[in-house]
Input
Amino acid sequence: MRAVAIKQYGGIEQLKEIELERPTIESGQVLVRLEATSVNPIDWKLREGYLRQMLDWSFPIVLGWDAAGVIEEVGANVTEWKVGDRVFARPETTRHGTYAEFVAVDAHLLSFIPDNMTSVEAAAVPLAGLTAWQALFTHGNVAEGERVLIHAGAGGVGHLAIQLAKHAGAYVYTTASKKNHELVKQLGADEVIDYKTESFENRLSELDLVFDTVGGDVQSNSYKVLKKETGRLVTIVGIQDEKKAAVYDVKAYGVWLEPDGEQLKRLAALVEESQLKVVIHASYPFSEKGIKDAHSLSETGHVSGKIVITF
Output
């Protein structure tokens, strides 16, 4: 099968199209023929070598951890799925990623793709959608009527988080550049702050939850706008100062995504009910050039929604 992989850490020039053996599935797994995958910041961060201590893998490494396609083969002890089913998943984090024509996926991590959802849209959801879900609900415990700030609301994770928080009954603030204000309002944001012209910490206070997808000064200043005792900061970029939460008398949680098929099925149900919309910023064909172009775009940090790769 065709795959795009890296054989050493570095820039986009390290992404090379290679031939690999089609994965051999084990008991409890299925083989998915991919129709689409997506590019996330973790992909190029790993490519650059930033995560080598956490994910110490041998080369070649096939990046990518979003899968959408059709089941080609079913392993032993798989009863819920059959050949021909349209599925999507966030597979386990291994060096055998989804920049490839086929991927082996543990059956319990799969979800059906709703009839009203394309494979391209489905590929955009798993990593970003599960990240938003776990940040808001698993760690953030968002409740109806709470006031929530979601940073970078037009981004791949942020645009899904806005919709999930609104669906849970929260009042949602978000930060976005002026050109994305209309988009985030359409997604459900109640109030939008232009981070280029206004400091959110000067405008907001007494919030129940802040979802930080940015880090740096944004994270530092987020502590200031939370309610004492009950306020929660949830971040996907790591907690920079472990003492800050105690200083501000709030809770802080760092999120590292856990693949979860049951949560993904709940996201799929929201799409099926037209309660969750996926925004696609750009689409590239599966090829060495396509993956390189997608990485270059992702690295700019100016992406509204998701970047997908089609097969």
Observations:
- The two ends are 12 Å apart (CA to CA).
- The chain has a mean pLDDT of 97.
